[in-house]
User: Fold these one by one.
Assistant:
Number 1:
Amino acid sequence: TGTRVVTGARDKTVRIWDATTGSQVGSCLGHTWTVTSVAFAKNGERIVSGSWDHSIKVWDANAGELLTVNAAHQESITDLTFSPTGEQLATASRDGTIKIWHFASRALIETLRGHEQAVQAVAFSPSGTRVASASWDQTVKLWDLAAPTTPITLSGHTDLVLGVAFHPDGQWLVSSSRDNTLRIWDAEQGDAMAVLHGHTDHAHNVVFSPDGRYFASCGHVSVKLWDSATKQEIASSPRNTIQEDYALAFDPAGRTLVAGTDSTSVRFWDIDGWQVTDTVQAHSDEIYHLCFHPDGSRMVSTSNDGTTKIWDMEHRIPLSTLRGHVGKVGRVAFSPDGRSLVGGMIDGRVVVWRGQ
C-alpha cells in the first residue's frame, strides 16, 4: 500500500518508517555488520535484508520481529532483486555466487557458481526463467534456472562489469562496465550484438524505461539516454554533473529520469525533450540510491548523510526526512506490488520485513 519505508544502514539496523509522517515505527535488530540492501516481499507481510555479515534475514514488518536468518553468502551482499512475480529472490555477493531463494519459505533453491570474482549486479528476465549476473571477472553470465549448472558466459568487457539489465521484451540485455562501454547481448544465445562507446569514464549502471523505448546509463561524469530500437545515443547530460556513487531511476510512467547529481541534489529530466525540468537540493552528502513506489506517487532517496527522504512526485518536494541511521543508508527496493521491502547486508545476510 506504500504506507511504510524500510532502510538499512551501517549502524547494523533495519528501521521501519511511516511514509507520510516520517516517524520511525519500528526497528529490526540482529545484524552484526552494515545492512546493504532491503526490500519488501510482494505481499507486504515480510521484509528481507542483506548484510556484510553474510546473512539474509526475514522480518515481520508489523512487529519488527526477526522471523528467519539465512547465512546467505560468505562475503558481503552486493545486490538483490525479486522475480517479476515476487515468488523468488536473487542475491549476489562478493563471494562470487548468486543464490536463488523461494521467498515464502526462505528456502534456498539454487546456488549459481561460475564467476571467478565478486558478482556486482543481478537481474531477472521478464519471464522470470533466467538470471543475468555482472561480475568483477569482466564477464556477464546468463543462467537458465531450469539448467543452472551450464550458464552462458558473455565475454568482451575488459574491466569490471558493474551493471546489467534486461529489456522489457526479454529478448536482449545491456551490461555496463568500468571499461567505459555498454554491451548489447542476445538474451537467448548470449551472442554479442553491439558495443556502445559514449562514456569517457566508468559506466556504472544501466536502467530501462518501463515501456522499453529507452535505456539510460550513468558514469562518473554524465548520464546518457539511448534509443532501444537503434541502440544509438540520443542525449547526454553535461559533463561533471553526476557524483561518483551515482543514483539513477526511471519513474513508473517512463516519462521522467531522475539522477543523483552534484553529490547532493536530484535532477529531473523530461525524456521526450531531454530537458532538466527541476533540480532539487536533496541531501547534505552524496546520494546513494533512488527508487520509486510502483504507483509513481512517491520517490525515496538515500544518502551518505544518514537520512532517507520520501518525495511527493507531483510537487517534487520532500514529504518527510527519515533520521536515525549513522553513515550511508543502504539500497532500498519496493516489491512489484509496493507492499514489501528486502535488504541485503554487507555482512552477507539478507533481512525481510512485512509492510502494510
Number 2:
Amino acid sequence: MRSAGRYEVRRDSIVALDAGAHVFKRAPLAARSLKLVPERVVQGAVKMRGQNESPLMLVGPRGAVMAREGLTLEWRGPAGTYRVELIDDDGRVVAAAELDRFSWLLPPAIRLVEGASYLWRVIALDAPGTRREARAEFSLLSAAERRQWMATRPSGQASVAERTRYALALEQRGLNAAAAAQWRELALERPSLAQRMGSLRCALISPQKARTAL
C-alpha cells in the first residue's frame, strides 16, 4: 500500500476501496502470510485489571500437536463465563462455545485437518462493555510425520539417556505437550531431574495426560 485510504485484505491479495488508494502489484510477503481473524465490534471502556485479579492465560495447545482426536483447549483466569473460538487458516470460525470452566474438549464432530494450522482464542465475558482475550496457535502433524514419531518413541524399558534424547527432539520440533509428558515421566523416575529440566520439561500435567500425549 502506497497511500492513505481504505483497503480490503483478502486471502491472497489486498484491494484498494478508495479512488486515491494504491496497492503494489505484488503484495509483500508479510501481507501474504497474514492470518485473518474475525472480530466483533465491542463498545465500551477497557477494564483495568485489579491487583488481586487473575490474568487470562492460555495453557495449551501451542506449537505442534500430535493427534487431532481428543484435543482439549485449556486456559486459566478468574471465575466467569468465557467464549472460546477455534479459527482455521482462512479466518473461519470452525467451532465456538461459551463455558463457565477453564477447558473445552473439542466435540468429535469437529474434524481438524492434518498438517493445517489453527488459531484459538478465549474471550472473557465477565461484564458488559469490557473485553479481555488471549490467543494462541497450533498446527497438526501430518499422518506421515506422526507415524514417524510413534515409530521412534522409546519403550518404557529404554534407558534414561535414550528417552531424554527423544524428549529433547520433541521440544525442538515444537511438540510441547508430548515433550512435557516425557519429561514428567523421567522426573517421576529420577526426581533429581525435576530442577534441571525447567518449567516446560517438568510441567505439572495429570498422569492421564502423560499417558495420552503421544
